[in-house]
Design brief:
7 strands; binds guanosine-5'-diphosphate-alpha-D-mannose; binds manganese (II) ion; GtrA_DPMS_TM; DPM1-like
C-alpha cells in the first residue's frame, strides 16, 4: 500500500500532466516601472536561455499600471507572475513577499529598472549550483565592479559610510552591503524569513546580518547602469533609513524605526529652535517672548518638513495635503507642549529633580506628538 502520510503526499504529488516547476525565481519589486518591466522580461528571456526560470513581479499598486502591464505579459508567458499589493509600500516587504511566493530551489532579487546587469544571473546560478555558496551578491565595489554614472556623488559617500557602519556594528563584511541585487538558496531564505524586518529597503543586508555568519557568501562585480525610464524611489535620505535598520538590529528589533526617526527629528528641532532664538536676540530683531514664539514655529515647521521627508517618506504629503498636514502638525505639537509641561510639573511636585521632571516631560511630549501625528497628520490613506 502506498504511504498516505502528509509528508509522503507532498513529496510524491502527482504531476504527470504538469511541467516541472522553475529552478530559479527572479523577484522584481516594482513601483511605477511600467515602461521598464517589458524590457526587463525581454532581457531575462535572452540571458537565461536554457534555464527553467520564472519572474515574480511584486507591485505596490503603482498608479502607472505596472501590475496590469505585467499581467498582460503573464497572459502570453506563464513564467511571468504578479503579486499586486494594495495599501502597502516598502521595498524590503515586497522582496520578502515575492521570495516567499516562490517554490523554486533558488531565488533572486533584482531592480526592475534595468540598472542591474541581468547578464550576471547565469553566473550567480552557476555559483549556487556548485554548492560552494549559499548566497551570491552583485557588488559595485569589488574589483571590476563600478558605480558607473548610476549613482550620485552624495549617494556614493553615503554608501561608503554605510559599508563601514555595517562592518563595525553588524559584523557584516560585505563590499557593497547596500546592494539590492542577489541570489540565494530558497531554503536558506525560508529559515531566516521570520526574523527579517519588512520595514526599510536593505533586504540583503538584513538577510546576511540575521544569518550571523552562517551563509557562505560570494561577491560578483557589476556595473550599475543608469536609469532609462522613470525615476528612483530611493533618494539620499535612504541613508537615514539605513541607520534606522542598524539601530533596530542593534536593539534586536525591539524599537520602532519610525519612532527612532521621529525622535531624531525632534532632537534636530531643539537645535533649530535654539539657533533661531539666539539669532533673533543677538540681532535685536525681537524681544524674548516674540523670539521664543517665532523660534517655536520655525522648529515645528522644520520638524514637519523633516518628518515628511524622512520618517514618513513612504506616505509623503504633497500639495494641499502638505498644507493641511502642516496645520494638523502645529495643532498636535501644541497639545504636545501641554502634555510635556503637565507631566513635568506633576513629577517635579512629587520629586523636585529638574532633570528627571524635564526628561519625563520631553518623553511624554515626544510620545504624544508621535502617536497623534501618526493618526492625524500622516494617517494611512
Ligand atoms: N514593490 C515596491 N515597493 N517596489 C519598490 C518600492 C516600493 O515601495 N520602492 C522601490 N521599488 C522598486 C523600484 O521600482 C525598483 O524596481 C527597485 O525597487 C529599486 O528602486 P529604485 O528606486 O530604482 O532604487 P535605486 O536605483 O535608487 O537604488 C539602488 O541602489 C540602492 C543602494 O544604493 C537599488 O539597487 C537598491 O536596491 C539599492 O539598495
Ligand atoms: Mn534603480
Amino acid at each position: 500500500m502506498s504511504d498516505t502520510s502528509p509528508d509522503a503526499l507532498c513529496e510524491n504529488a502527482d504531476a504527470t500532466d504538469a511541467k516541472s516547476g522553475p529552478e530559479l525565481s527572479i523577484v522584481l519589486p516594482t513601483f511605477n516601472e511600467r515602461e521598464n518591466v517589458p524590457l526587463v522580461v525581454e532581457a531575462l528571456r535572452k540571458c537565461l536561455e536554457g534555464v527553467n526560470w520564472e519572474v515574480i513581479v511584486v507591485d505596490d499598486n503603482s498608479p502607472d499600471g505596472t501590475a496590469e502591464c505585467a499581467k498582460t505579459i503573464g497572459q502570453v508567458d506563464p513564467r511571468v507572475r504578479v503579486i499586486r499589493r494594495i495599501g502597502r509600500r516598502g521595498l524590503s516587504g515586497a522582496c520578502i513577499e515575492g521570495m516567499l511566493a516562490s517554490s523554486a530551489k533558488y531565488v533572486a532579487v533584482m531592480d526592475a529598472d534595468l540598472q542591474h546587469d541581468e547578464n550576471l544571473l547565469p553566473r550567480m546560478l552557476q555559483d549556487l549550483r556548485s554548492q560552494d555558496y549559499d548566497i551570491v551578491i552583485a557588488s559595485r565595489h569589488v574589483e571590476g565592479g563600478e558605480v558607473g554614472n548610476g549613482l550620485s556623488a552624495v549617494r556614493e559617500w553615503g554608501s561608503n559610510l554605510a559599508n563601514s557602519l555595517a562592518r563595525r556594528f553588524l559584523q557584516v563584511d560585505l563590499s557593497d552591503p547596500m546592494s539590492g541585487f542577489f541570489m540565494l538558496r530558497r531554503d536558506a531564505f525560508e529559515d531566516l524569513a521570520p526574523s527579517l524586518s519588512a520595514q526599510g529597503f536593505k533586504i540583503m543586508l538584513d538577510i546576511v546580518a540575521t544569518a550571523k555568519g552562517s551563509l557562505r557568501i560570494k561577491e560578483l562585480p557589476f556595473v550599475f547602469r543608469e536609469r532609462l525610464h522613470g525615476e528612483s524611489k530611493l533618494d539620499t535620505l535612504v541613508t537615514m533609513d539605513y541607520l534606522g535598520l542598524l539601530l533596530a538590529k542593534l536593539f534586536h528589533d525591539r524599537l520602532s524605526i519610525r519612532f527612532l526617526m521621529f525622535s531624531f527629528v525632534g532632537a534636530t528641532g531643539v537645535i533649530v529652535h535654539l539657533a533661531v532664538l539666539k539669532t533673533l536676540l543677538a540681532t535685536g530683531l525681537a524681544q524674548f517672548s516674540a523670539a521664543q514664539l517665532v523660534a517655536t514655529f520655525v522648529a515645528m515647521t522644520s520638524n514637519f518638513f523633516l518628518n515628511n521627508r524622512l520618517t514618513y517618506r513612504d506616505r509623503r504629503l504633497k500639495g494641499s495635503a502638505w498644507v493641511r498636514g502642516l496645520f494638523t502638525f502645529y495643532l498636535v505639537c501644541s497639545f504636545g507642549v501641554l502634555a510635556n509641561v503637565g507631566v513635568a510639573e506633576l513629577i517635579y511636585a512629587q520629586q523636585p529633580l529638574w532633570w528627571l521632571a524635564g526628561a519625563a516631560g520631553a518623553l511624554m511630549g515626544a510620545v504624544w506628538n508621535y502617536v497623534a501625528s501618526k493618526t492625524l497628520t500622516w494617517r494611512q490613506s
